[in-house]
Specification:
Blueprint (H helix, E strand, L loop, with lengths): L24 H17 L2 E7 L2 E11 L9 H5 L2 H43 L3 H26 L1 E5 L1 E2 L2 E5 L2 H10 L11 H7 L12 E3 L3 H6 L7 H17 L3 H6 L5 H12 L3 H12 L3 H17 L1 E4 L1
Parallel strand pairs: 1-6, 5-7
Antiparallel strand pairs: 1-2, 2-3, 4-5
Length: about 300
């Protein structure tokens, strides 16, 4: 029987390349496994770019009642300007307390005499009962507000003694997590499990967890037409989180409701929406001074950069 030669492809038909095809399943599976790890432990890898470089860290959200804030005593003691300002503020508080004691005594005397006059006019003790009832209601309201504050989820980062730990590579971050070195996230109930399971390949932040603070000031300086809403909105979100977790009251004040930078944030959010809301947001942006916004953000980025502990 004659041996048949193998069939050759038609010259006009392109040869199939065995190397082409869909994305490698191993890479997809690895990314899904990493995301499952973070979702299970309720911790996320975060990438932050600052003028000094880009680094990785970790962030978690937990009820305020479950977290012990980072200790900033050592950090603030290393800042001579802050230490001097705190000393002056302490002296002012002492003077105000002395005045407050005198004021309280005088106020009490007036209050007592005023209550006596009111009771004499009414001829009964209803006024005292109403006052006690009002005080009790106020105390209940304060307790409810305190409980709500304790239940509110707040951010916590990989910090230690008031400083943000930033790692230049995923490998160095994982090495630190596994080392058992002291840090503020070790108080989380899922920390020990993370230290046992995390791998360098897991340090792959989502797009929404990548923040480019190094570009904010330059973008604002470019003028209203060049402002990047996504860049600036995300910068505001992480700056607020960092300011809370690292106890930076000055930064919180600069981004607080009613501030010029908060107005900028609200206008940016409105501008990305369609319709009349987006139109009004863009109009509001035109009224915000580019120089004022860039100077404010330069201060914020500087304060955050000052409390970073870079780790290789």
């Amino acid at each position: 029987m004659a041996r048949q030669s193998p069939q050759r492809p038609d010259a006009d038909e392109p040869e199939l390349d065995d190397t082409t095809g869909p994305a490698e399943p191993d890479a997809t599976a690895s990314a899904d496994a990493a995301r499952a790890l973070w979702d299970e432990l309720r911790i996320d890898p975060v990438e932050i770019a600052l003028p000094a470089g880009t680094g990785y860290t970790l962030r978690a959200y937990r009820p305020a009642s479950e977290l012990t804030p980072t200790d900033v005593a050592e950090r603030d003691a290393d800042d001579p300007f802050l230490a001097r300002r705190q000393a002056v503020e302490a002296d002012d508080e002492d003077e105000n307390e002395d005045l407050g004691i005198l004021d309280e005594d005088v106020a009490r005397e007036f209050a007592e005499s005023d209550d006596e006059e009111k009771r004499a006019k009414r001829g009964d003790g209803d006024g005292a009962d109403d006052a006690e009832k009002g005080d009790a209601e106020n105390e209940d309201t304060d307790e409810e507000a305190a409980d709500e504050a304790d239940d509110e989820e707040v951010p916590a980062f990989l910090t230690h003694r008031g400083r943000l730990l930033l790692f230049k590579t995923p490998e160095s971050l994982v090495s630190f997590v596994r080392s058992g070195a002291p840090n503020d996230l070790s108080q989380l109930d899922s920390w020990n499990e993370l230290s046992e399971r995390v791998e360098p390949a897991d340090i792959a932040p989502r797009d929404e967890d990548i923040y480019e603070l190094d570009l904010v000031v330059e973008n604002l300086r470019g003028g209203h037409d060049t402002w990047d809403p996504t860049l600036l909105i995300e910068a505001g979100e992480v700056a607020r989180d960092l300011a809370y977790a690292l106890r930076l009251p000055a930064v919180l004040d600069m981004l607080s409701a009613g501030s010029s930078l908060d107005d900028l944030d609200e206008a940016l959010r409105a501008s990305v929406n369609g319709g009349i809301g987006g139109f009004m947001g863009r109009r509001r942006l035109k009224k915000i001074g580019a120089q004022t916004a860039s100077l404010g953000w330069r201060t914020i980025v500087g304060k955050i950069s000052a409390i970073v502990d870079w780790r290789d």
